[in-house]
Amino acid sequence: MSGPSDDQLDFAPDYDSPVPYMQRTREYYAAIGYTTPYRWAHYVDAPFQPLKKPLAQSRVTIVTTAAQYDPTKGDQGPGAAYNGSAKFYKVYDDDTSKQHDLRISHIGYDRKHTTATDSGTWFPLPQLLKARASGRIGEVAPRFFGAPTNRSHRVTIDVDAPDILARCLADKVDVAVIVPNCPVCHQTSALVARHLEANGIGTVVMGCAKDIVEYAAAPRFLFSDFPLGNSAGKPHDLESQALTLELALRLLESAPGAHTTMQSPLRWSEDASWKLDYNNVSQMSPEELARRRAEFDKQKEIARSNRAA
Question: Positions of the region Disordered (predicted)?
Fold first, then answer.
C-alpha cells in the first residue's frame, strides 16, 4: 500500500535545501582534472565575543571580499566573466564617508542567476549608514576593509586576519559585519571572524554558503539562501537589503553563544531550481568541462603573474 504523495503532503523538492558548495567544488575540480581535493577549513569550537556595549553605542565596520574597481584591469562590469586580473592579494581599506565602486568580477559568484548589477547585494555600506542615521548603531567606523580571497588557509590565518584586526583596533571598532561572495570567500570570512572574536571584536558573517561557514565554525552567521553574490540582500530591492542587515544586527545582539546561525526568511524565488546549477558537473558536457579547464589554467597563470608583480 503506497503512502501519500509529496504533493499531497506539500513537501518541498529535495534540491530545495542549502546548496552543498563544498561537495560541488570537490566534484567540479576533480571533473576538470584536479584530483587532489581541496581541504576546507574545519573547526568544531568557535571563539565568541559578546557585545561589550549596546549596538546603539557601538562602532561598526564592514569587511568585504569585493575588489575596488580599477579600469586598467579588464572587464569588471555586470555579468563579466571571471577576471583574475582584478583580484587583490593584500588587505586594503578605504573611507566609509565616501561612495565606492566595489565589484566582484574576480571571484566565483553565481553568474547564471545574478548579474552583479547592484553593489548593495555585496557591500552593505549604504544600509549601515542608514542604521547609524536612525540610531540603530552608534557609529560607522572611519574605514571598511577588504579581505583577499585566498585559498591558502595559512595566509588568511597568519597574515590577512591579523592585518584586519590591527586596522580594526586602530579604528576602535567594536563590531565587524563580514560579507563574502564566492565559496572560498566564505571560508576567508569565517577565518577572519574567528580571529576578530578571539581578540575582542564581535562579528557576524552575512553569507549564502551555509556549509562552508558552519564547517569553519564562524561565531555568528546570518544565512541567506540566495545565489552567491547576494549576501547582503536581493539586487535592486532596498527592503530586502535593509532587512538582511537588520537580521545581522539582531543576531549580534541575540546569539546565545558561539557557532550560532540564523536563517533569513527571504526566498530568492518560488522556483528553487537555481540551486541545481552552480558548478554542477552532472549538467556539464565533456566539451564544457574541457573549456572550463582551459580557462581555469589561463586564470591561474594570470594570478601567478599578478602575485609576482
Answer: 290-309
